[in-house]
Amino acid sequence: MKGKFRIALLSDDRKMSEPLILLLESREYCVVLRTDFSRVLGALYSDPPDMIIIDLGAFTPERLKIVSELKTDSYFAIIPMIGFIRPSIEESVAWEQLPLDDYMVLPVQTPELFSRIALSIQRMERIFDHNPLTKLPGNTSIRRAVEKSMGKPRAVCYVDINLFKPYNDIYGFVRGDEVIRMLARIISNAVKESKEGGFSGHIGGDDFVFIVSGKEAEAVSQLVIDRFSMIVVNLFDKEAQARGYYISKDRQGRRQRIPLLGIAIAIVPTSNTAIQHYGEVAARAAELKKEAKASKASCYVIDCRKA
């Protein structure tokens, strides 16, 4: 976690909140207490926290309105909110009108609160990190997976779709998104089917990463290529399939032949002790992808350098 995780505690019950703040700060959370519910929205809008804990023990319309307004705000909707409620109302709450992310019954049990905060943080990180189109882990998880593989007999494989931009421009983003989802499924399934399993992630756009054992990297890469090649032809009409290209026009209106979609894969073994940093893996992969994309056909290129 970078810096201290900032929690806004909304409560006018100082008997409960003051010892709770001390306990939270002992876990290195930064806690800001807001006691004036009539001014709390303005305070939160001017200084957004990482999490909100609201005391709903006094189940008033004012407090319910705060929850509703924050959770219908596009920015605050993704900030985790935990509510404290009385046991007498737990079974009668209309949760569709009280869109909390989690709740606890008063009196607060601190071990449970710490667990719920930790789980909320993990859930938020997963939501932020996963790509919304493919549901695959994004850049933060990719970086961690690559760093975890450093010095081990594994290989990081970067995948890119050849000539995706003209396809997306001509056939539309809906078709383009389907190509990306299709490739995500192919990569994910190929990695799952490998003997030792591995990791698959989505950098963004048409760029993917998967990590498998070094001895399986070439076989898994070829499997991804083969499956993509089998399916991708169905995205084009029979004439384009027969020709191996489709016709488009450049910005000057001139007709041009664009080859059917293919993929380029750069394989970087992480067992190479000369590679010490995540950035070096990415830099080598970028060079290898250029080499792979120079080929008209789908292919993979493996980094064989020792230093």
Would you write up a description of this structure?
This protein has 307 residues and is of the alpha/beta class. It folds into 2 domains: 6-128, Response regulator (Rossmann fold, 3-Layer(aba) Sandwich); 139-302, 2-Layer Sandwich (Alpha-Beta Plaits), CATH 3.30.70. Helix content is 42%, strand content 22%. The chain is built from 10 helices and 12 strands. The chain has helices at residues 14-26, 40-46, 61-71, 110-129, 139-149, 164-171, 173-193, 217-232, 238-243, 278-293; strands at residues 6-10, 30-34, 51-55, 81-85, 102-105, 154-162, 199-204, 207-213, 245-249, 255-259, 262-269, 299-302. Strands 2-1-3-4-5 form a 5-stranded parallel sheet, with helices on both faces. A hairpin with a 2-residue loop joins strand 7 and strand 8. Helix 6 (164-171) crosses helix 7 (173-193) and helix 7 runs antiparallel to helix 8. The two termini are 33 Å apart. The mean pLDDT is 90.
